[in-house]
Amino acid sequence: MPELPEVEVTRRSFADQIAGARIASLEWGKPLRWPLGCEPSTLVGQSVVGVRRRGKYLLLDLDRGLLLLHLGMSGSVTFSANPGPAGKHDHFSLCTAHGVLRLNDPRRFGAVVFAPGENSPQAQKLLGRLGVEPLGEDFVLDDFARALKQRKGPIKQVLLAGDAVVGVGNIYASEALFLAGIRPTTRATRLSRARAARLHAAIRSVLSRAVEKGGSTLRDFSNAQGESGHFQLEAAVYGRAGLPCRVCASPVRTIRQGQRSTFFCPVCQKS
Ligand SMILES: [Zn+2]
């Protein structure tokens, strides 16, 4: 599943190219998770002003309103001046004067939704409950530490829930907890201020590093130019069950938490 770094890498790989491009037409394959929410013809002739990201949504700002694009479980986006005909899993194409933005999504949990504005009910239904951005200025230690004190669950589950901070998915939660030396099963309420501070810094560090590395290729991820990322090559614990910890050489362990795999080092992450 594409996580925040992959969505950010995707954004950076086409945002400059599509900016200012006039929309010529929209093409659809099979239905995606949610309907577009407007008459497609009303978008034709508008320009894509720019591309932002909020959580795992790409926000394409138009002259009037915006398109919210989500990659779902298996989606990826390509942007090309000469893309050729749409394939079996290409379910949405935004044809512009600068090229075609295409969503390929075999499982069709992805979506493209129009909203008249970011504060409209249509947009807030999707964005309204997202926590703060981990790479933004609003991710403040005091608030994060306070939020953790109010959560009863294991810290990894609290991170995945996305309300204390958005976009720390399965891969990056394991990695950040390793970097902070925190056992993923530790109750969030029990983390001291000092440990919350280490986790806060680790989340920023792991996510920025992943963006820098072009994201992960664990789920066949590639950016809008078809280039894959390299983050997993240096993952400390994720996907490394039984292999020696890169710090202490103890075998990395894996457990299930909420039906997702968690990876940790029993020595570096004692509690
Ligand atoms: Zn270790």
Notable features of this structure?
271 residues; alpha+beta; 10 strands; 25% helix; 4-stranded antiparallel beta sheet
Could you explain how this protein is built, in words?
With 271 residues, the chain is an alpha+beta fold. The protein has helices at residues 4-18, 121-127, 141-149, 155-161, 170-180, 193-212, and strands spanning 23-28, 48-54, 57-62, 66-70, 76-80, 90-96, 99-104, 111-115, 253-257, 260-264. It has six helices and ten strands; from the N terminus they run H-E-E-E-E-E-E-E-E-H-H-H-H-H-E-E. A four-stranded antiparallel sheet has the order 1-6-7-5, with helices on one face. Strands 2-3-4-8 form a four-stranded antiparallel sheet, sandwiched between helices. The protein starts with a helix and ends in a 7-residue tail after the last strand. The mean pLDDT is 92. The structure holds zinc ion. Zinc ion is lined by residues 245, 247-248, 250, 265, 267-268.
Bound molecules: zinc ion
Shape: globular
Mean pLDDT: 92
Q: How much of the residues is beta strand, in percent?
A: 15-25%
Radius of gyration: 20 Å
Ends apart, CA distance between termini: 28 Å
Strand order of the largest sheet: 1-6-7-5
Helix/strand/pairing category = alpha+beta
